[in-house]
Amino acid sequence: MVERRTVAPDVAGSTPVTHPNPAPDRVRRILDEHGSLVFPGVYDTLSAKIAERAGFPLAFISGYAVSATFIGQPDLGLLTQTEIVERARHVCGAVDIPVLVDADTGYGNALNVVRTVRALVGAGAAGCFLEDQVWPKRCGHMAGKRVVAREAWLEKIRAAVDTRGGRDFFIVARTDALAAAGLDEALARAEAAREAGADATFVEAPRSLDELREIGRRAPRPTVANMVEQGRTPVLGRSELAALGFDLILYPVAGLYASAQALTGVYRHLHEAGATRGAADRLMAFEEFNELIGVDESRALAARFEKPSRQGSASRNGVEAGRDGVRGGR
What we know:
The chain has helices at residues 25-34, 45-54, 63-70, 81-94, 110-123, 150-164, 177-181, 183-195, 209-218, 238-244, 254-273, 286-293, 295-303, 314-329, and strands spanning 3-9, 16-22, 37-42, 59-61, 99-102, 127-131, 170-175, 200-203, 224-226, 248-251.
């Protein structure tokens, strides 16, 4: 594996700190190609397919969104490691673009982080976010967050880096210390996590443009901006955030909120009108949806395994299928 040396400013923004760091290929190549990058949160295979179809080269499985859609519960530490890994396995198997996964706090101590990273690597994830909240955690834009001691979090980062080893797995060190302990502590944690081997840093929930500007200037790069509509952070566009120093610009819940709004409107119309007439413009066409989920590809794949004699006549196929069914019934 080729080692890449990265340079990041220290917490005071003065003397650069140079250190070796492995550079996982998939996400690093995307960053090298795009510079700063906007990418969406997804929560299931369909939303991931839509993100890929829209042209995004990277996606993120949001714990907030999976908690809402999979278990119907708020992001308050109720989603389990097993549930997020299983969702990651399905999503990563459904798309070709790399997928980062919200691993919350790693679901325990450093040993739990080892298990979590191993499971996510096995699921095909391109990397994970790992945060420093006290478990059970809560959404980064909710009140009442608490963080563990800095060294306890760094143990988890080191465990993730060690478990990753030379494999292509991008580790984002997320700190929620800004709300709990202030901006200087959050930036100190980001710097320490980068020194511990994390590939990117993420100071969650800055509350103003000034705080965004300070994080963009001082946090080790690449660094994440998390754009949550109606959340605590001002929502800015890619060019604005890139100018401030952010590289990975995540919109984690835009798709979730759009889906919830669309379903609410269509279901309300159906309930009130007793039919979908008048709501056709809100629905994806049958053929377009079949194309999205790969009906033609599935049919073509099935045809590869048919006997040559069965490929010539659809009616004969039907008769043979019926006979097979009768024989099977006996």
